[in-house]
Specification:
Layout: H1 3-23, H2 28-35, H3 39-46, H4 54-64, H5 68-71, E1 90-93, E2 99-105, E3 110-119, E4 124-127, E5 135-142, E6 144-149, E7 152-157, E8 161-165, E9 170-173, E10 180-189
Antiparallel strand pairs: 1-2, 2-3, 3-10, 4-9, 5-8, 5-10, 6-7, 6-9
Length: 193
Protein backbone atom coordinates (compact mmCIF):
# COMPACT_ATOMS: atom_id res chain seq x y z
CA UNK A 1 0.00 0.00 0.00
CA UNK A 2 1.40 3.40 -0.91
CA UNK A 3 1.41 6.21 1.62
CA UNK A 4 -1.39 7.91 -0.29
CA UNK A 5 -3.59 4.78 -0.12
CA UNK A 6 -2.97 4.31 3.63
CA UNK A 7 -3.75 7.99 4.23
CA UNK A 8 -7.08 7.57 2.45
CA UNK A 9 -7.93 4.48 4.54
CA UNK A 10 -6.89 6.21 7.79
CA UNK A 11 -8.95 9.31 6.98
CA UNK A 12 -12.02 7.16 6.23
CA UNK A 13 -11.52 5.31 9.53
CA UNK A 14 -11.07 8.64 11.35
CA UNK A 15 -14.30 10.06 9.98
CA UNK A 16 -16.35 6.95 10.68
CA UNK A 17 -15.04 6.43 14.25
CA UNK A 18 -15.77 10.07 15.04
CA UNK A 19 -19.26 9.81 13.53
CA UNK A 20 -20.10 6.57 15.36
CA UNK A 21 -18.79 8.03 18.63
CA UNK A 22 -21.00 11.12 18.22
CA UNK A 23 -24.01 8.96 17.23
CA UNK A 24 -23.53 7.01 20.48
CA UNK A 25 -23.10 10.27 22.45
CA UNK A 26 -19.77 9.09 23.83
CA UNK A 27 -16.95 11.31 24.97
CA UNK A 28 -13.40 10.46 23.98
CA UNK A 29 -12.84 9.23 27.55
CA UNK A 30 -15.94 7.00 27.48
CA UNK A 31 -15.00 5.42 24.16
CA UNK A 32 -11.44 4.84 25.31
CA UNK A 33 -12.68 3.15 28.48
CA UNK A 34 -15.21 0.95 26.62
CA UNK A 35 -12.59 -0.07 24.05
CA UNK A 36 -9.85 -0.50 26.66
CA UNK A 37 -7.43 1.71 24.75
CA UNK A 38 -5.88 5.05 25.64
CA UNK A 39 -7.71 8.31 25.06
CA UNK A 40 -4.63 9.53 23.21
CA UNK A 41 -4.95 6.67 20.73
CA UNK A 42 -8.65 7.46 20.15
CA UNK A 43 -7.70 11.10 19.48
CA UNK A 44 -4.96 10.05 17.03
CA UNK A 45 -7.34 7.69 15.22
CA UNK A 46 -10.05 10.36 14.93
CA UNK A 47 -7.48 12.80 13.53
CA UNK A 48 -6.32 10.23 10.97
CA UNK A 49 -2.80 10.27 12.41
CA UNK A 50 -2.72 6.66 13.61
CA UNK A 51 -2.34 3.47 11.63
CA UNK A 52 -4.48 1.29 13.93
CA UNK A 53 -4.01 -2.47 14.00
CA UNK A 54 -6.82 -4.88 13.17
CA UNK A 55 -7.09 -5.72 16.87
CA UNK A 56 -7.46 -2.07 17.84
CA UNK A 57 -10.13 -1.53 15.19
CA UNK A 58 -12.00 -4.60 16.47
CA UNK A 59 -11.97 -3.16 20.01
CA UNK A 60 -13.34 0.16 18.73
CA UNK A 61 -16.03 -1.54 16.66
CA UNK A 62 -17.14 -3.61 19.64
CA UNK A 63 -17.21 -0.56 21.92
CA UNK A 64 -19.28 1.37 19.37
CA UNK A 65 -21.70 -1.50 18.72
CA UNK A 66 -20.82 -1.67 15.02
CA UNK A 67 -18.85 -4.05 12.84
CA UNK A 68 -15.27 -3.63 11.68
CA UNK A 69 -16.70 -3.49 8.16
CA UNK A 70 -18.73 -0.42 9.23
CA UNK A 71 -15.56 1.32 10.41
CA UNK A 72 -13.54 0.61 7.26
CA UNK A 73 -16.61 1.24 5.05
CA UNK A 74 -16.87 -2.12 3.30
CA UNK A 75 -20.41 -2.85 4.47
CA UNK A 76 -23.60 -1.67 2.84
CA UNK A 77 -27.35 -2.09 3.14
CA UNK A 78 -28.56 -5.67 2.66
CA UNK A 79 -28.76 -6.16 -1.11
CA UNK A 80 -26.40 -7.36 -3.78
CA UNK A 81 -23.07 -5.62 -3.35
CA UNK A 82 -20.14 -5.90 -5.74
CA UNK A 83 -16.85 -4.79 -4.29
CA UNK A 84 -14.16 -4.32 -6.93
CA UNK A 85 -10.54 -5.10 -6.16
CA UNK A 86 -9.48 -1.45 -5.89
CA UNK A 87 -12.19 -0.88 -3.23
CA UNK A 88 -11.07 -3.71 -0.93
CA UNK A 89 -8.91 -2.42 1.96
CA UNK A 90 -5.68 -4.09 3.03
CA UNK A 91 -5.63 -3.93 6.85
CA UNK A 92 -2.44 -5.86 7.57
CA UNK A 93 0.95 -5.81 5.93
CA UNK A 94 3.46 -8.47 6.90
CA UNK A 95 7.10 -7.55 7.32
CA UNK A 96 8.01 -9.65 4.25
CA UNK A 97 5.14 -8.52 2.00
CA UNK A 98 2.13 -10.57 3.12
CA UNK A 99 -1.32 -9.01 3.32
CA UNK A 100 -4.73 -9.39 4.95
CA UNK A 101 -7.64 -7.89 3.04
CA UNK A 102 -11.15 -7.45 4.42
CA UNK A 103 -13.15 -8.59 1.38
CA UNK A 104 -16.64 -8.00 2.76
CA UNK A 105 -18.54 -7.59 5.99
CA UNK A 106 -21.95 -7.00 7.45
CA UNK A 107 -23.29 -3.84 9.07
CA UNK A 108 -24.23 -3.45 12.69
CA UNK A 109 -23.64 -5.24 15.94
CA UNK A 110 -23.60 -8.76 14.51
CA UNK A 111 -20.36 -8.82 12.59
CA UNK A 112 -19.59 -11.33 9.86
CA UNK A 113 -16.41 -10.69 7.90
CA UNK A 114 -14.72 -12.40 4.98
CA UNK A 115 -10.92 -12.09 4.84
CA UNK A 116 -8.22 -13.15 2.37
CA UNK A 117 -4.73 -13.60 3.82
CA UNK A 118 -1.40 -14.17 2.12
CA UNK A 119 1.50 -14.82 4.51
CA UNK A 120 5.04 -15.17 3.28
CA UNK A 121 7.59 -17.49 4.95
CA UNK A 122 8.45 -16.31 8.47
CA UNK A 123 5.47 -13.96 8.89
CA UNK A 124 3.25 -14.06 11.96
CA UNK A 125 0.12 -12.23 13.04
CA UNK A 126 -0.68 -12.21 16.75
CA UNK A 127 -4.09 -11.21 18.10
CA UNK A 128 -5.49 -10.48 21.51
CA UNK A 129 -8.65 -12.32 22.48
CA UNK A 130 -11.74 -11.19 20.58
CA UNK A 131 -15.02 -10.59 22.40
CA UNK A 132 -16.80 -13.52 24.03
CA UNK A 133 -17.93 -16.32 21.68
CA UNK A 134 -16.24 -14.92 18.55
CA UNK A 135 -15.84 -17.69 15.99
CA UNK A 136 -13.41 -17.94 13.09
CA UNK A 137 -13.65 -20.31 10.14
CA UNK A 138 -10.36 -20.77 8.30
CA UNK A 139 -9.70 -22.52 4.99
CA UNK A 140 -6.15 -22.91 3.65
CA UNK A 141 -6.03 -22.62 -0.12
CA UNK A 142 -2.31 -23.23 -0.53
CA UNK A 143 0.68 -23.72 1.73
CA UNK A 144 0.80 -24.60 5.41
CA UNK A 145 -0.56 -22.41 8.21
CA UNK A 146 0.18 -22.74 11.92
CA UNK A 147 -2.71 -21.49 14.05
CA UNK A 148 -2.07 -21.03 17.76
CA UNK A 149 -5.19 -20.86 19.92
CA UNK A 150 -4.68 -20.26 23.64
CA UNK A 151 -1.11 -21.69 23.52
CA UNK A 152 -2.05 -24.80 21.50
CA UNK A 153 -0.77 -25.02 17.91
CA UNK A 154 -2.70 -26.56 15.01
CA UNK A 155 -1.24 -27.06 11.52
CA UNK A 156 -3.49 -26.62 8.50
CA UNK A 157 -2.27 -27.68 5.06
CA UNK A 158 -3.77 -26.95 1.63
CA UNK A 159 -7.50 -27.73 1.57
CA UNK A 160 -7.71 -28.13 5.38
CA UNK A 161 -10.31 -26.12 7.31
CA UNK A 162 -10.78 -25.17 10.94
CA UNK A 163 -13.49 -23.68 13.15
CA UNK A 164 -12.28 -22.13 16.41
CA UNK A 165 -13.59 -19.95 19.19
CA UNK A 166 -11.23 -16.96 19.25
CA UNK A 167 -12.14 -15.22 22.50
CA UNK A 168 -8.63 -16.21 23.63
CA UNK A 169 -5.18 -15.04 22.48
CA UNK A 170 -4.33 -16.50 19.08
CA UNK A 171 -1.96 -16.19 16.14
CA UNK A 172 -1.40 -17.27 12.57
CA UNK A 173 2.07 -17.97 11.22
CA UNK A 174 3.84 -19.29 8.19
CA UNK A 175 6.75 -21.45 9.30
CA UNK A 176 7.16 -23.08 5.86
CA UNK A 177 9.39 -22.17 2.91
CA UNK A 178 6.55 -21.04 0.63
CA UNK A 179 3.62 -18.62 0.78
CA UNK A 180 0.38 -19.61 2.46
CA UNK A 181 -2.98 -18.30 1.25
CA UNK A 182 -6.10 -18.68 3.35
CA UNK A 183 -9.59 -17.29 3.69
CA UNK A 184 -11.21 -16.57 7.00
CA UNK A 185 -14.74 -15.81 8.10
CA UNK A 186 -15.18 -14.10 11.46
CA UNK A 187 -18.46 -14.08 13.39
CA UNK A 188 -18.69 -11.72 16.36
CA UNK A 189 -21.62 -10.18 18.20
CA UNK A 190 -20.86 -6.82 19.74
CA UNK A 191 -21.21 -6.62 23.50
CA UNK A 192 -22.77 -3.17 22.94
CA UNK A 193 -25.39 -4.38 20.43
Amino acid sequence: MTIKESDIVNQAIASRVHSFRKDNRLSLDELAKRADISKGMVVQIEKGRANPSIGLLCKLANALGVSLADIVAVSDEPKVIIRHQHDIPTLWHGDKGGTARLLAGTKGSVMIELWRWIMLPGEIFTSDAHSKNTMELIHVEEGSLAVEVNNETFTLNANDAMTAQMDVPHSYSNTSDSAVTFTMTVYEKSSQG
